[in-house]
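ok new one. same drill as before - structure tokens go in, u give me an amino acid for every spot. 448 of them this time. try not to just spam alanines like last time pls lmao
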């Protein structure tokens, strides 16, 4: 029987961040247990993007904090995880949406995302983003109005675009490198990784005593942290807790953009309008005739998005046109139609995507599971027996929030001062009847 001060189940980005922040807070003997190699499950599948652009004030504060922490880590490490600040560009061809976009932006700006700048002439002082690095970029957002101005800065976009909102405290990074930096820094402070599945959590008199691993090894520890990602619910049950989470499958496709349709310096490009997919008349008629394929001729939701990846010609393509709740499995089932549908959807925003119709570059397709609460806020704090904690349910925002989530968890465990948003993410929020009532009317705050 080995002894540790804390055992963390799950070495995804949340688990490694929790280990790092606990070690930084002075806890020395930390065991990080995972049946898979570190950072190899959901944390290896993401788009690796971040933004502080959130309509939920608690989420916005969490992301601002997480970005502060990531920027500090980027500074101290010489930016080993290549954090950039290219931003997210939300594009619409619908004049009717401009007022709504302005109102939503004003609200998010007032919540603390930074100022809004509106540009409507080509002589505007709009400051384009730098392709690399994260320093000295503006915060807040720029709203570009009018096609000439939009295409002056983003020539790859459609002539139909009428407004483009550029959220500026946003961009992407290498999640693997960020995770490895946290893990290696944690290791130097005493974090140990153990390959193995956590199969039991021992409690006595309402307190955590330790965990059991599939190898038969027993570990003694007064602290147990459930950071099991999509298996949060299953691992919660080992500690006698039924966590209010569910999982959804989300896919991602990568193709080689040999024609250079997406500028290599582009931000994350998001099409904000619903649409019907572009098909030749004959194709459309044939698809509409068959009940199995008719849906391909019907209305698709807003949100198809893309960004350039790496130094070659790769681009990532994502679109949640179907939400598919399902229990997590080792190898997520892949929908072979997904890349073509995403590519066709992107043609609304990037007309030259049509040049790939009929000669689609061979896609790489993968996917993972979002783990979500009803209101799409994470779970960070005490669960069940004394000494048991949870950090997860980070949905489609686990990379961007991991640093602040790890820091928050460490503050709970070491009983340090908690930030104002702590109560919004603690599992105990569901004990509050008023909060549960609010949930009935909670909108979907979206997670690009
Ligand atoms: C297609 C896609 C795109 C995304 N894009 C973004 C994005 O742009 N930005 C962003 O911020 N986020 C994004 N995300 C979300 C992000 O990837 C996740 O929120 C994040 O990786 C979750 O991290 P985690 O540590 O909670 O889970 P995981 O990375 O899944 O880690 C959990 C670990 O727990 C281990 N485990 C489970 N049960 C046990 C057990 N019993 N014993 C031992 N180990 C166990 C697992 O093996 C696993 O390694 C995206 C996700 C997907 C799928």
């Amino acid at each position: 029987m080995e002894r540790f001060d804390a055992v963390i189940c799950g070495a995804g980005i949340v688990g490694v961040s929790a280990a790092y922040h606990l070690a930084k807070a002075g806890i020395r003997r930390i065991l990080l247990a995972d049946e898979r190699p570190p950072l190899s499950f959901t944390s290896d599948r993401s788009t690796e993007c971040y933004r502080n652009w959130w309509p939920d004030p608690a989420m916005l504060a969490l992301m601002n904090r997480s970005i502060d922490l990531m920027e500090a880590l980027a500074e101290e490490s010489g930016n080993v995880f290549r954090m950039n600040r290219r931003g997210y560009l939300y594009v619409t061809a619908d004049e009717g949406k401009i007022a709504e976009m302005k109102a939503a932006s004003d609200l998010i700006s007032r919540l603390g995302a930074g100022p809004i700048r509106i540009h409507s002439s080509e002589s505007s002082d709009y400051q384009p983003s730098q392709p690399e690095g994260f320093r000295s970029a503006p915060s807040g957002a720029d709203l570009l109005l009018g096609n000439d101005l939009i295409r002056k800065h983003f020539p790859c976009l459609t002539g139909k675009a009428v407004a483009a909102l550029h959220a500026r405290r946003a961009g992407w990074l290498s999640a693997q490198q960020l995770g490895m930096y946290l893990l290696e820094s944690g290791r130097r402070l005493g974090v140990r990784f153990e390959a193995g599945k956590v199969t039991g959590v021992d409690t006595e008199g309402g307190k955590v005593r330790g965990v059991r691993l599939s190898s038969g090894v027993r570990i003694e520890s007064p602290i147990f942290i459930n950071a099991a990602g999509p298996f949060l619910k299953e691992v919660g049950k080992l500690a006698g807790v039924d966590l209010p989470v569910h999982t959804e499958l989300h896919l991602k496709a990568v193709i080689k953009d040999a024609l250079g349709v997406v500028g290599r310096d582009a931000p994350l490009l998001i099409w904000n309008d619903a649409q019907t997919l572009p098909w030749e008349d004959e194709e459309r008629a044939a698809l509409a005739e068959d009940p199995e394929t008719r849906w391909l001729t019907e209305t698709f939701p807003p949100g198809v998005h893309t960004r350039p990846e790496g130094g070659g010609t790769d681009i990532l393509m994502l679109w949640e046109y179907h939400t598919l709740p399902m229990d997590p499995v080792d190898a997520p089932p892949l929908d072979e139609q997904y890349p073509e549908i995403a590519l066709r959807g992107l043609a609304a925003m990037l007309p030259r995507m049509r040049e790939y119709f009929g000669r689609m570059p061979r896609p790489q397709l993968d996917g993972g599971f979002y783990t979500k609460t009803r209101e799409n806020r994470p779970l960070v704090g005490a669960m069940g027996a004394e000494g048991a904690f949870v950090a997860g349910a980070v949905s489609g925002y686990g990379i961007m929030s991991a640093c602040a989530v790890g820091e928050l968890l460490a503050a709970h465990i070491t009983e340090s001062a908690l930030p104002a948003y702590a109560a919004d993410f603690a599992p105990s929020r569901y004990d509050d009847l008023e909060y549960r009532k609010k949930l009935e009317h909670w909108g979907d705050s979206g997670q690009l």
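The chain is about 25% helix and 25% strand. and btw The chain has a mean pLDDT of 96.
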